[in-house]
């Protein structure tokens, strides 16, 4: 897998194909896809590529959001018990935070729950200093009567 920093269409398609393959009934296909995703998670840009897929709602069942939450827990903050190298760059963190907020109003409840959990994992380390827009965004979503899903309330 190439470096995902550029976020090319080819890289996004590879990621979509790999995510889809994790749902394949064949054990060999699933195992290969999981190993490929694990290896790709060590590359710069993987988290933002995953956040982009989740934000675009290109794959059902909230799988990208669940994997993004796991990625955040492993690579977001050095010194955490679950931390694994490499740490996500500041630029990539900013992209992921922005895409998480965009994804939070998803009408699919399970997707919203997974995004909320990813937001909570980021907020523990980044709010309020590095993510001041989080609370105003959450309040806006809570007050928005057209969004009755309420998944954003699960962030805290």
UniProtKB/TrEMBL annotation:
This is Importin N-terminal domain-containing protein. PROSITE patterns: IMPORTIN_B_NT. Residues 33-106 form the Importin N-terminal domain. GO terms for biological process: protein import into nucleus. It comes from the Eukaryota. It is found in: Nucleus. GO terms for cellular component: cytosol; nuclear envelope. Keywords: Nucleus, Transport. Pfam families: IBN_N (PF03810). GO terms for molecular function: small GTPase binding. Its main location: nucleus. InterPro entries: ARM-like (IPR011989), ARM-type_fold (IPR016024), Importin-beta_N (IPR001494).
């Amino acid at each position: 897998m190439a470096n995902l920093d550029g976020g090319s269409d080819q890289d996004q398609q590879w990621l979509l194909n790999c995510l889809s393959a994790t749902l394949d009934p064949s054990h060999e296909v699933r195992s290969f896809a999981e190993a490929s995703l694990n290896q790709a998670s060590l590359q710069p840009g993987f988290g933002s590529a995953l956040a982009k897929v989740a934000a675009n709602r290109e794959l059902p069942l909230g799988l990208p959001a669940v994997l993004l939450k796991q990625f955040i827990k492993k690579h977001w903050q050095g010194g955490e018990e679950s931390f694994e190298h490499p740490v996500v760059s500041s630029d990539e963190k900013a992209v992921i935070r922005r895409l998480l907020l965009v994804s939070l109003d998803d009408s699919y409840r399970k997707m919203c729950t997974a995004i909320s959990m990813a937001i909570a994992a980021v907020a523990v380390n980044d709010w309020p200093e590095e993510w001041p827009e989080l609370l105003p965004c959450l309040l806006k979503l809570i007050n928005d009567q057209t969004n009755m899903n309420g998944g954003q309330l699960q962030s805290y």
